[in-house]
Specification:
The structure holds two protein chains of two kinds. Helix content of chain A is about 65%, strand content about 0%. Chain A is built from nine helices and no strands. Helices cover about 20% and strands about 40% of the residues of chain B. The chains are: A mainly alpha, B alpha+beta.
């Protein structure tokens, strides 16, 4: 399906471009949403990303089936990262309050490999990611979904590898805590009742 | 190294693997509308234009080549294979050392094939189909052959140069007389209408030299379609731009086709210029940031008898309200490919120097632009507005160039050309013209040309 569509899209065939959009936009919008955390921004990123895709589509070389989607996804991720950079301006991705950090402290050594979480539906799971602070969310997305290593993430986001590791660890801890909260509250940190 | 597969990672990856969100109709419409307005890729367009020019130049070259060949064939004076370039209409006069005028003519009807010592060439005349037409004949030097006899018969089919020798004074009583030199060096009798009288060895020798020259010219003329090829460099001072005056370096390779006093010059060159993209930026200084508490939530945990607080905060940046103005500059190097099509006319020619005028259009196409200075980075400042004072340079522009050309023959095959010239740009050199004034420039073209003619 990809190759004939691609040829027509390179020739700027309106029907092919629309078909390309209809076919790939839903999954790519999901990617954008995961990075920026809200629908409006995600649609903006999708628009900009798709414009880039159409502009550069003649440079794409088809290797195997599915490579077009991977290529489009990479462009979309880069567009999302640029958007976040512009939005945040400073390199400091972490915008979590120190009090919250202390509250969210979690010892990762005690992870149970067999730990199971409830299947609560894609929308709720997506919302958990969107609720993460931007810095945690970006590192988590790059590591888990794009399967980047810490070195690559560090180069991409221009901070140290240790920062990447630390942010990923904190992102996991927050997500795990939220997942567990939905089941029980036994692992929550303790505060004395006043 | 294999990545550690954390259960949280796996959970999210698995559950969101096929997650999709349907984009809004408004978003789709906006995208389709923008996508249709996108220009085709610059690279493709540039390649297309370059290809068009290459085809055009090749066509012009082929046309000139064909014209050159056809004119050689159709011209009675022209060389045709080994045919010498002399005939009835060609009459060369040469002053001998004794003051005699020697007129050399050659009858093409009898001319079939000749060769010169040291210039052995086979030939054939298309309109002659008689037997033996491809036979090589020798155009022998006249003086030694004709000095001994003046009335020996020769075969009429032989190729015969006719030499008419006459006294310089018109009051001479001697009628014009002719000498015919056969292959064997004999001359035809005067009774048959052709004779040799008043033998003048010097004049005969000089007529022979002329024939030699004609032959060489005919051979050389076969190469006349070949262009003179050379390398040029033109420093150019451009005026009437937003940045004031600019210095531009132009260099490349050109080929020139000559048609008598006229010439056509084309080729390909590069034009390298620095450009400044100047911005006017209004901004507010960054003062700092704080975390603004939006809301907080407390959850009661029964087993541990605790309140669990959750804070919802957003980072708030604070900027100064004072508006400041900055003029950052980004310096770029623009490289254009230039394709000229210059027509020329030489109004004065001598053995060593020729002077002429050159006029024609030049197309400039942006190849690359390299940023030499760092990109403007506002940092933490809040940008209020950015205006382009001097925008980037345009992708394609046309110019007309005119100049006074002086060609100096350094050696037989090497020519130095010096050409003070002026250029007028038909459109602005900027992407978005800030004003309607069009630049003009002055330059001096210097070229070393190799002549193949």
């Amino acid at each position: 399906m990809e190759e004939p569509l691609l040829k027509k899209a390179i020739a700027r065939d309106a029907g092919a471009i629309e078909a390309l959009y209809d076919h790939y936009a839903p999954s790519l919008l999901s990617v954008c949403f995961r990075y920026c955390g809200n629908r409006e921004d995600a649609e903006d990123i999708l628009h900009d990303g798709f414009i880039k895709i159409i502009q550069k589509i003649h440079t794409f070389k088809m290797r195997k089936d599915g490579s077009l989607e991977a290529w489009m996804r990479r462009i979309m991720v880069n567009t999302a990262l640029n958007f976040l950079r512009d939005r945040m301006k400073e390199k400091n991705f972490v915008d979590i309050d120190p009090i919250l950090e202390k509250l969210n402290h979690y010892d990762e050594e005690k992870i149970d490999e067999e730990e199971k979480y409830l299947n609560m539906g894609q929308e709720k799971i997506m919302n958990l990611i969107c609720e993460l602070p931007a810095g945690y969310r970006t590192v988590f997305n790059l590591y888990v979904f794009e399967e980047y290593g810490h070195k690559e993430i560090a180069e991409l986001l221009q901070f140290s590898e240790n920062t990447s590791k630390s942010q990923l660890s904190k992102a996991r801890a927050m997500l795990r805590k939220k997942l567990n909260q939905m089941v029980n509250v036994k692992i929550l940190p303790t505060y004395e009742k006043v | 190294m294999k990545k550690y597969n954390h259960p949280v990672d796996g959970y999210f990856r698995e559950n969101l693997k096929d997650h999709q969100i349907t984009p809004s109709d408004a978003g789709k419409k906006a995208f389709l509308s923008d996508a249709m307005r996108l220009p085709r890729s610059d690279k493709k367009r540039r390649k297309g234009i370059i290809l068009l020019w290459v085809i055009l130049i090749a066509l012009i070259g082929a046309g000139i080549f064909m014209w050159s060949i056809n004119s050689d064939k159709s011209s009675p004076n022209s060389a045709n294979g080994s045919k010498p370039s002399v005939n009835k209409s060609l009459s060369l006069t040469h002053q001998t050392s004794r003051g005699l005028s020697t007129q050399v003519t050659k009858d093409p009807v009898h001319l079939r094939a000749t060769s010169q010592p040291g210039l052995a060439q086979k030939s054939s005349v298309p309109d002659e189909k008689a037997a033996g037409q491809n036979k090589a004949a020798a155009l022998k030097p006249l003086a030694p052959e004709t000095s001994g006899t003046n009335s020996q018969l020769v075969d009429e089919d032989q190729i015969i140069p006719v030499v008419n020798i006459q006294k310089p004074n018109s009051d001479s009583l001697d009628p014009p007389r002719f000498a015919v030199v056969s292959e064997k060096g004999t001359t035809k009798s005067a009774d048959s209408g052709i004779s040799f009288m008043n033998k003048e060895p010097d004049s005969i020798a000089s007529s022979d030299t002329l024939q030699n020259n004609n032959l060489w010219r005919s051979v050389e003329k076969d190469r006349s379609w070949m262009p003179n090829i050379g390398f040029y460099y033109t420093p150019e001072w451009m005026f009437n731009t937003v940045e004031g005056s600019k210095f531009v370096n132009n260099f490349g390779i050109e080929g020139t086709f000559h048609f008598g006093r006229f010439s056509v010059r084309t080729g390909a060159g590069l034009s390298v210029a620095k450009g400044t993209n100047e911005l006017s930026v209004e901004y507010n200084d960054f003062l700092g940031a704080y975390n603004k508490l939006d809301s907080m939530k407390f959850a009661w945990s029964d087993p541990s008898h605790q309140y669990i607080p959750t804070y919802y905060m957003t980072r708030q940046d604070v900027w100064d309200s004072l508006l400041k103005l900055d003029y950052p500059k980004v310096i770029k190097r623009y490289t254009y490919i230039q394709i000229p099509m210059i027509m020329g006319y030489d109004f004065w020619q001598s053995e060593k120097i020729s002077l002429g005028i050159r006029v024609g259009p030049v197309m400039s196409l942006l190849l690359t632009s390299k940023q030499l200075s760092e990109e403007f980075d506002p940092g933490t400042k809040r940008i209020v507005s950015i205006n382009n004072i001097a925008p980037g340079q345009i992708n394609l522009n046309w110019q007309i160039i005119g100049g006074l050309n002086a060609s100096i023959n350094l050696t037989r095959n090497l020519i130095l050309e010096i050409e003070p010239c002026g250029r007028y740009y038909f459109n602005s050199v900027y992407e978005k013209p800030v004003n309607n004034t069009k630049p003009w420039s002055l330059g001096i073209r210097t070229a070393f040309i190799v002549s193949f003619n």
